[in-house]
């Protein structure tokens, strides 16, 4: 591999910057994959993350004496890579969530609207600080959370909700939810 030292200093810095964005973005996705227990995807992302990182650090260290701009590009690429990795992760929204909604006036109507939209809500009656309310629980793919909440807010704009990642689930209406198990699943995700 030709070293970046032979390139124009600004071009070499841009290459290092881009390599760092790539490796840190892969690292962000790998970390999330590890937390979600996606072993195959974590291994694959870890391999490419380390390969790109090793390339970037080797090139930066070889050329840093002649081109101190490489050090700034290396650090800047790390910082930018965090932001890019987070944006990519938000876009692909891996995982399954449980959405807990609470409504004091329209719980039944929200559950009906969600059922009509194809969701499988479970409702409970409870008592909150302001009196009786309905709790609605739904398990859904994370990438569809905004659609589900839009349906619920269409019935009750003042609905209170929380969203939590689900590590495991089994049976019932949740059996139809797909849990992508490998890297190809990222490309199969559809809305």
UniProtKB/TrEMBL annotation:
- Give an example GO cellular component term for this record: plasma membrane
Where in or outside the cell it occurs: the entry states:
Cell membrane
Q: How does it sit in the membrane?
A: Multi-pass membrane protein
Q: Which residues cross the membrane?
A: 6-29, 41-62, 68-86
Q: Which residues form the DUF5698 domain?
A: 28-86
Could you list this entry's UniProt keywords, alphabetically sorted: Cell membrane, Membrane, Transmembrane, Transmembrane helix
Q: Ranges for the DUF2179 domain?
A: 122-171
User: Per the annotation, which location comes first and is thus the protein's main one?
Assistant: membrane
Name the chain's protein. Answer: Uncharacterized protein
Q: Which organism is it from?
A: Lacipirellula limnantheis
């Amino acid at each position: 591999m030709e070293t970046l030292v032979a390139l124009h200093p600004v071009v070499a810095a841009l290459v290092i910057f881009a390599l760092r964005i790539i490796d840190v973005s892969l690292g962000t996705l790998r970390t999330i994959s590890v937390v979600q227990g996606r072993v195959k995807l974590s291994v694959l992302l870890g391999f490419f993350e380390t390969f790109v990182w090793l390339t970037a650090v080797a090139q930066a260290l070889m050329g840093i004496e002649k081109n101190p701009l490489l050090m700034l590009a290396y650090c800047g690429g790390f910082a930018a890579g965090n932001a890019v990795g987070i944006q990519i992760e938000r876009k692909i929204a891996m995982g399954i969530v449980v959405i807990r909604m609470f409504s004091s006036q329209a719980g039944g109507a929200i559950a009906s609207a969600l059922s009509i939209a194809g969701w499988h809500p479970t409702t409970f009656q409870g008592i909150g600080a302001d009196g009786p309310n309905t709790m609605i629980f739904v398990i859904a793919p994370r990438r569809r959370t905004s659609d589900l909440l839009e349906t619920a807010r269409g019935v009750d704009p003042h609905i209170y909700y929380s969203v939590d990642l689900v590590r495991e689930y089994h049976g019932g209406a949740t059996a139809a939810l797909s849990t992508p198990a490998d890297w190809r699943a990222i490309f199969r995700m559809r809305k």
